[in-house]
Write a structure and sequence with these properties.
nine-stranded antiparallel sheet, alpha+beta, five-stranded mixed sheet, Beta-galactosidase, Chain A, domain 5, single chain, elongated, 15 helices, 2 domains
């Protein structure tokens, strides 16, 4: 599916270029052809030496006698911890559903007993024997089931374990906040030196397993300095190490993410693939020091991610173009997204917001559209003269090109004038494409009547068919500089585009359809009042 969808998008882009450039790039043929707190680094309380049990933990060394689960519930999510290892067993989002009927909520992690890799928030110390004991050990619990709400917005839960033999162990403290997907995490090694790692857990954050789609990304991603590194799952054959200034490490899919954001200086992340469908990201903490993190496990809502101030919003692929990231498209898409959000806040309907956004784009490009139309009309008027020159110099291409350039110069016509202004609109189209196809805000967002999810295809294919008709009308109204036979061949393009768009997200189809309708109106107005 991945390769097929990419080929479809490539075909569309190439088709756009053919449509707007064919008659100009080759005009001389021999015959006519919510609010979060910004993450700030905090001073590590144990900067140079491991924290000792007596200094940091009032632990007796007693272990729990049986496995227990603790449920933490907020207005946004419900999670289940186990004291076996002090890890997360399940993470369910309350505001997001797998289906439009709202029968199945999105669950970021719930593997049952089938875990090949690691559970989220598992810690691996620099001691293989101790690791095995901690992994299967029953931690003592400070706290119980938690229910947060507006009257009780914050609570903490701690897990502690000390091996009676060695006196070594670990303490984990989790602080939860209502109305936030953030969890403050503190990890304190007990009498255990050396580096240790904290894991995102196998596929934690990947709600719907898959590979890369047309846009977006599925798998582990890491921000090192100012660069986001995305490790393609198919290419992970062994441990991958990312070193530098680690801003965050995550596992994500198109719409959801689990990310660990260090509050202290961290310089290393390890990507591990334990099976074809088990991948995790581990942050390495040096020297057995206490460490603090923010765990974010939730939707890739742009405002929430941006509020951290560490570039977590760059996990959203705004700048994707066929096979690579383009920063200019990314910035453009972010600007368009702000406009879309503005209209949504007014209309409370993303479909209507898309219509307003499309209208704004058309207004901005009105001068270019007029210039393009005018250039096409000029070229159309010159067709009889061009055909005479083609007959006269049919055996001398160099003289033909020279004569045609002189003709264009005398009549002040730019053969590329109709093409280049429209080519300049391609980055805007790609920015909108990335925006509409890859933002969770449009996921399961209704428009009207039968269109109840702008992120999926039109179930009855009504909008793609209307879009194809508008393309046909637009093409009929556009001045042509090719002969009638070639003009008839070009009429197949709306049919091809309609076929391509049948399975595209209805939000994208809506944009293109409205854009065509507005362009038809502009062309009619231009023909009536400016080309007499």
């Amino acid at each position: 599916m991945e390769g097929m969808e990419k080929r479809v998008l490539i075909a569309i882009v190439l088709s756009v270029l053919v449509l707007i450039g064919y008659q100009y790039l080759a005009p001389t043929p021999p015959s006519p052809p919510k609010t979060q707190q910004t993450v700030q680094p905090v001073q590590n309380p144990a900067e140079s030496t491991p924290v000792s049990q007596s200094e940091a933990l009032p632990l007796s060394g007693k272990m729990a006698g049986e496995e227990k689960t603790i449920t933490v519930e907020t207005d946004l999510y419900k999670t289940v911890f186990t004291n076996r290892g002090g890890v997360i067993k399940r993470w369910e989002l309350k505001k997001y559903w797998l289906d439009l009927k709202k029968q199945n909520k999105v669950v970021l992690f719930d593997p049952g007993n089938k875990v090949v890799g690691a559970f989220p928030m598992s810690v691996k110390l620099n001691d293989p024997e101790l690791n095995n004991i901690i992994k299967n050990g029953l931690f003592s619990i400070d706290g119980g089931d938690i229910t947060l709400n507006s009257k009780n917005p914050k609570a903490a839960l701690s897990f502690s374990f000390v091996d009676p033999k060695s006196g070594k162990g670990l303490k984990k403290t989790f602080t939860f906040h209502n109305e936030s997907y953030n969890v403050d995490v503190d990890i304190i090694p007990v009498n255990a030196g050396g580096n240790y790692t904290i894991s995102t857990g196998s596929n934690f954050g990947i709600s719907e397993w898959g590979e890369e789609r047309i846009v977006g990304f599925v798998g582990p991603s890491t921000m090192v300095g100012t660069k986001v590194i995305r490790d393609k799952i198919k290419k992970i054959t062994g441990p991958i190490y990312h070193e530098g200034e680690i801003k965050w490490a995550s596992v994500q899919d198109k719409y959801f993410i689990s990310a660990l954001i260090p509050k202290d200086k961290i310089n290393k992340v390890i990507i591990i693939k334990t099976s074809d469908k088990d991948v995790q990201s581990e942050i390495e903490v040096p020297g057995g020091k206490q460490s603090s993190f923010i765990l974010y496990a939730g939707p890739k809502e742009y405002k929430r991610l941006k509020s951290f101030g560490v570039g977590l919003d760059h996990s959203i692929s705004f700048g994707w173009f066929i096979v690579w990231e383009v920063s200019a498209i990314s910035w453009l898409a972010r600007g368009l997204f702000s406009i879309l959000q503005f209209f949504y806040n007014i209309t409370h309907n993303y479909g209507i917001a898309i219509i307003f956004l499309t209208a704004i784009v058309r207004v901005v490009f009105t001068p270019l559209t007029y210039k393009s139309f005018k250039s096409m009309k000029g070229m159309q008027k010159l067709q009889p003269e061009i055909q005479k020159l083609q007959k006269k110099y049919k055996d001398n291409r160099a003289e033909l090109n020279k004569a045609m350039m002189e003709l264009y110069k005398n009549h002040k016509v730019n053969p590329l004038g109709g093409c280049l202004p429209m080519v300049l609109q391609l980055p805007v189209f790609m920015g909108l494409y990335n925006l509409l196809a890859n933002t969770i805000e449009l996921r399961q967002s209704p428009f009207f009547l039968w269109v109840q999810d702008l992120s999926t295809k039109d179930p009855y294919y009504v909008m793609p068919i209307i879009m194809g008709i508008t393309m046909l009308v637009q093409q009929k109204m556009t001045p042509t500089t090719v002969d009638p036979t070639q003009a008839k061949m070009m009429l197949i393009m709306p049919v091809i585009f309609t076929f391509f768009f049948l399975n595209f997200p209805s939000g994208l189809v809506l944009y293109w359809m409205v854009n065509n309708i507005l362009t038809i109106g502009q062309q009619h107005f231009t023909m009536k009042y400016f080309t007499k």
